[in-house]
Design goal:
About 30% of the residues lie in helices and about 30% in strands. It has about 350 residues and is of the alpha+beta class. Helix 1 packs across helix 2, helix 5 packs antiparallel against helix 6 and helix 5 crosses helix 7. The termini are far apart.
């Protein structure tokens, strides 16, 4: 890939030699993006046609429905996605909205709007997405729940890997990341539910190297991350949720603010990669199982309720009761109270 004098990849152009808006297909939501787009995130507003219960691992159903849409309209692209042994070029959230809890089930309510987010990370998938929006089905069928597609809007702006690489980087950048759905990493065949900086950036860099076309050597950069990135503040909760095809996952939600040590500033290239991969995070998600609702990430210090709204909680409530009981007993011992 050609690079500019600054060392960044040169700007990409369309076959006609210019950057143009997609004008060949229209959709009822009026969504368009530049023809050269490689990354974009969409927010769907889904409205149940009647009250219905979602089964515990309904995100498997959302995942399967999305892949079926690709297979029916673009079999070759579907086969390419199937053959990808490592990083998938898309992420899917669970549903976000007002639910009625019924044991370990979640009941969606008629006429309520539920948010579903889809991000795609390759030019081929973006092109398919534009064509699909022009012929979008009326509803998503999840066994007993039929969800009408009422709204579609841009969630993460359309961009390219080159444009992300060329974003101006502050002299001493910081990053604040919020984890909107339970987030976890795989470590020694177990779940690791902590946002250790090296794990965060290994997650982002792995996807960038697989999908961008201009990779960065991982080991030296991750060593720099481990030595130079500082956790300035955090607010985190842990929970166990049903996700994917292999049962429950222990993950975290909340937010974290990351800064750099003084010594980090001596390596300007890595400072820019730190900032660049942070901007990439909302598109690619964090950790594993990002195509099954985990790892939904946004920039900024924002808080949402832990996403039991997305995925059924199995164990966090008894654990929290035990923690509060222990705290109360310790306080009573210190004060000598009998109540």
């Amino acid at each position: 890939m050609a690079r500019s004098a600054s060392g960044h990849p040169a700007s990409r152009q369309t076959r006609s030699g210019r950057l143009s808006k997609r004008g060949d297909r229209r959709n009822r939501f009026g969504i368009t993006w530049a023809e050269h787009t490689e990354l974009v995130g969409l927010r769907f507003g889904l409205v149940p046609q009647h009250d219905a219960e979602l089964y515990a691992q309904y995100t498997i159903g959302l995942h399967a429905w999305f892949l079926q849409q690709i297979q029916r309209t673009h079999p070759h692209l579907s086969q390419q996605l199937h053959d990808q042994a490592t990083e998938k070029a898309f992420t899917l959230s669970g549903l976000n909205g007002q639910f009625v809890a019924t044991g370990q089930q979640l009941r969606v309510q008629q006429h309520q709007t539920y948010e579903w987010n889809v991000s795609v990370l390759s030019q081929a998938l973006v092109e398919w997405l534009g064509q699909w929006l022009a012929n979008l089905p009326e509803a998503i069928d999840l066994r007993r729940a039929c969800l009408q597609i009422a709204q579609v809007e841009i969630l993460h702006p359309a961009t390219t890997y080159t444009e992300l690489a060329q974003m101006p980087c502050p002299a001493r950048p910081s990053l604040t990341l919020s984890f909107r759905s339970p987030t976890s990493f795989r470590r020694k065949k177990n779940h690791f539910p902590l946002p250790v900086p090296m794990n965060l950036f290994h997650s982002y860099l792995r996807r960038w190297n697989e999908l961008s076309g201009f990779p960065l050597e991982a080991d030296p950069f991750l060593e720099w991350i481990d030595e130079c990135v500082i956790i300035r503040r955090h607010r985190l909760e842990s929970m166990k949720v049903a996700a994917g095809k292999q049962g429950s996952v222990t993950g975290f939600t909340g937010a974290i603010e990351l800064g750099l040590s003084q010594s980090a500033l001596q390596n300007r290239e890595y400072v820019e990669w730190f900032y660049r991969l942070g901007q990439f995070a909302p598109y690619c998600g964090t950790g594993h199982k990002t195509t099954f609702g985990l790892g939904q990430t946004q920039l900024g210090w924002g808080f949402a309720e832990p996403e039991a709204i997305h995925l059924p909680v199995t164990e966090w409530l008894p654990q929290r009761i035990a923690e509060l009981t222990e705290l109360f007993m310790n306080q009573r011992k210190r004060t000598g109270g009998d109540r």
